[in-house]
Amino acid sequence: MNTMQYIENKTFDEIEVGQSAELVRTLKREDIELFAVMSGDVNPAHVDEEFAKSDMFHKVIAHGMWGGALISAVLGTELPGPGTIYLNQSLSFRKPVGLGETVTVRVRVREKKPEGKRLILDCECVNQAGETVIKGEAEVIAPTEKVRRPRAALPEVHLHERGARYKALIEVTRDLAPVRTAVVHPCDALSLSGALEAASQGLIIPVLVGPRAKIEAAAVEAGRDLGEAEIVDAPHSHAAAQMAVALAREAKVEALMKGKLHTDELMGAIIDRASGLRTERRMSHVYGLDVPHYPKPLFITDAAINIYPDLDDKRDIVQNAIDLAHALGLPAPKVALLSAVETVSPKITSTVEAAALCKMADRGQITGGLIDGPLAFDNAISKNAAEMKGIVSPVAGDADILVAPDLESGNMMAKQLIYLAGADAAGVVLGARVPIMLTSRADDMLSRLASAALVQLFVRRRSGIVR
């Protein structure tokens, strides 16, 4: 069966006075957002719901030219259709169009001018109540040759405001006391700026640990004023890591933030059995991702610390991620234990361990979350994929936390989402005496602030301390 759709015009000779065409469209928020993106018109009457409530119409309304664009669509696709050349358009805007309202757009031929093959058409847009919202006329040159072409398939458009979830996360911290944080070797402009900006937003109180001269030089490079920020002078990055860890052991700081040094150098000081920050809990890294097209924040663990975690390690990895989700206000986060398949197979160790972790959760060895696995990646994040495979689970297709089988798969999965899907990433290490903000050298300012916000929420909501 041929389902190909075609678009066909009406030539000047075929058109009669009184002939009309129309389309019907219901205004959706996506229409307003797309029009704002295309036109650059971000008038708050159209894109700011709070403002719109206080405006004269008391609601979000469409851009006036959204209706004008629909008139153009009828002229270009229906009457006369392909080959039409616009000459003039006059419009009178009578009423606003609000979200959810349905508009019928109609054009009607009023006059034919043989000279130049011109048409004068009456144009109007009428809402579902029969009220005219736009009225006007158009003058066009009608095509003289017949055109019939396959109708173009428009691309599917997904709108994503970069950083919106991170900004909301940072806003949630406004009533919380800042966290006294040792910033380890902040000797470049970006890491120092991240720490100082986090301080300016009330997320942390920075204690800058590193060579004083290099820190001051980085401040000059960044155009930042160190103000009253405390500096703990250390001769080099290795010493800075050890001194920052010592401050945490002595409870003089509540968190650590990575500056310009290698992760291995910082973590080496943290995991030292004699002088580090070990606890009975295995340390693990959690990525907090803002992924376009996923409807909520997504956490991935572990992609940076544990290379080949065993079952005991994975229990702690899962619990650390659940504890972080609790700090963000998720009372029962949905945890997907990932593997290549969704069935238990003795030949794939990660499936057996996933099944064991589920039973450990049943027995209270892991608490505070809904846990299921093994689940393949698609089943964990896509309801359609889960339904097609007949998976019945409260976690499948709606995961908050993805637990990778090992560091390699977790790191690749996170980096693919960041570099191919456009996800923003914040990172934190949990399971030590204090949380550690573990950002990458490639992370931008917003990611660094989001990491600080994650730690502030974790520390303050665990302790119950507000301003």
How many extended strands? Answer: 18
If strands are numbered along the chain, what order do they take across the biggest sheet? 10-9-8-11-18-17-12-13-16-14-15
Secondary-structure-based class equals alpha/beta
- Overall mean confidence score, pLDDT: 93
Supply database-style keywords.
Isopropylmalate Dehydrogenase; 467 residues; alpha/beta; 18 strands; Thiol Ester Dehydrase, Chain A
Explain the overall architecture.
This protein has 467 residues and is α/β, with parallel strands linked by helices. Among the domains are: 143 residues, Thiol Ester Dehydrase, Chain A (Roll), CATH 3.10.129; 151 residues, Isopropylmalate Dehydrogenase (3-Layer(aba) Sandwich). Helices cover 35% and strands 23% of the residues. It contains 15 helices and 18 strands. An 11-stranded mixed beta sheet has the order 10-9-8-11-18-17-12-13-16-14-15, sandwiched between helices. A hairpin with a 4-residue loop joins strand 4 and strand 5. The radius of gyration is 30 Å and the shape is elongated.
Topology at a glance:
Elements: E1 6-8, E2 20-26, H1 29-39, H2 44-47, H3 49-54, H4 64-77, E3 85-93, E4 102-113, E5 118-127, E6 132-141, E7 148-150, H5 164-172, E8 179-184, H6 189-200, E9 204-210, H7 212-222, E10 230-233, H8 237-249, E11 255-258, H9 263-271, E12 284-290, E13 298-301, H10 311-327, E14 334-338, H11 349-362, E15 370-375, H12 377-381, H13 383-388, E16 401-403, H14 407-419, E17 424-430, E18 436-437, H15 445-463
Helix pairs in contact: 5-15, 6-7, 6-15, 8-9, 10-15
